[in-house]
Amino acid sequence: MRTIVGYAFLAMSFGLHAQAPPYTLKLALLKYRGGGDWYANPTSLKNLSEFCNTHLQTRIDPDYATVDVGSSEIFNYPFIHMTGHGNVVFSDHEAKNLRQYLIGGGFLHIDDNYGMDPYVRVAMKKVFPELEFVELPFDHPIYHKAFEFKNGLPKIHEHDGKPPQGFGLIYQGRLVCFYSYETDLGDGWEDPEVHNDPEYKRQQALKMGANIVQFAFEQ
Q1: Residue 171 in 3-state DSSP?
Q2: Residue 35: which residues within 8 A CB-CB, separation 6 or more?
């Protein structure tokens, strides 16, 4: 089974010594087929990386990568972010590739940018037919890393006005995929002028994003 190339960098991402190179890893954005805008929120991962570097002392390259779900390139990145508003389609090869990536140690964060929920659930069922998304309780460690979220995910954008929910796919005891729904963290990570969110909302989004990154690296 393939494992994540460079995954050993994870243990080096926090509390590095001064002589360490400027960056030890980078996050990646997942490109998928089906018509959904996988490229939404172009500034979000850059800003999240910089926030983590400032507040978690990570060394994440703000120049994030873009990787196709069916490409072997995904194995170069320990943390992959997926977003969009619409349809998501995985071929058999793409589903198998993503499954191998996640089983091999990778982590996927899916952030519903509004409208992708019915499609991404079908797509991920193709990746893990034996698993179901389960809602993570508020006492799950992902909500209690560097920043405290006693009531789970923060609500960044209203959309349908539903409460935010955090779902997970758990494979052999490990959270391999975290799915943030009805919150729109990625919009909150974007440059301030993109959505003109109140600064406290943007900070909530970035802090929760930092928790997700930290959890993925430390679990």
Answers
A1: strand
A2: 86, 87
**How many Å apart are CA 28 and CA 25, to the nearest integer?**
10
The strand pairing partners of 79, in sequence order, are 107
Beta strands in the chain (DSSP E): 25-31, 60-68, 79-84, 107-112, 134-135, 165-171, 174-181
43, 191 in Cβ contact below 8 A?
yes
The predicted model scores a pTM of 0.91
CATH homologous superfamily, domain 7-218: Domain of unknown function DUF4159 (3.40.50.12140)
Tokens 């196709």 label which residue? 68
At 36-72, the pLDDT tens digits run 899 989 999 999 999 999 999 999 999 999 999 999 9
Angstrom distance (rounded) from CA 83 to CA 185: 10
Q: Which residues are paired to 108 by β-bridges?
A: 80, 177
Do 130 and 136 contact (CB within 8 A), yes or no?
Answer: no
Question: Do residues 64 and 49 make contact, with C-beta atoms less than 8 angstroms apart?
Answer: yes
Would you state the structure tokens that stand for residue 142, as one six-digit string?
């992902």
Place of tokens 């490109």: 31
Q: DSSP state, 152? A: S
| Domain residue spans of the chain | 7-218
Smallest CA-to-CA distance from 153 within 193, 117, 92, 112 is with 112
**Letter for the amino acid at 85?**
H
